[in-house]
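Progress against Task 2.4 (sequence-to-structure conversion) is shown through the following example record, which the project officer requested during the mid-term review.
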Amino acid sequence: MKPDFAIDLHHQGLKQVYGTDEATSFSLGISLAPNGPTLPAYKNYNDVTRQMLAYVYDEMSGYGYTHIDRYQIVDSEKQVGYDIDIKGGVVSAMMMGLNYNGLNPENHSHPAVFFETKGNSSDGSLGQKSNGYLTKQNYLALKSLVYGYVTGEINEVDPESWNDIPSYPLAGYWTDYNGIVPAGSSGF
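Structure tokens generated for the chain above:
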């Protein structure tokens, strides 16, 4: 298989949209940090992944029950966030075109993003009504991303619109190869 892109779905527990008292219901993420140490120089996915998620954000912003932010590891005490730059994850491997156990001999790579949904899979974590709107939220986000990609509308989005998605002030990058690297550091 040689997909055009991948979408990975997860649950993230509970957090708040920065600067509000609103619980985050949906976070948009990229495992190799946009503008971080790995992605900007890699296959031009820095732009397309930011375009994909900015498009989803714009499409989903009209739904009153959806409180969206960018996915970050948050230090709630300091009120800062860390963008992840994890090379060892499955989504990252798809982007980097790794050939694990000979399964990808042509080193095919493609952009990949992920959606994080409020709550977790534990029984009783969220009520039935919450589960219903969270399911609808994921359905609408997936539908909008596929539509935007197929029609080419994603290509019309300014990649810098990624910065319009609410996020905590960036303190650095949470990596799986160099620990926490402060923003603006040359520790990559």
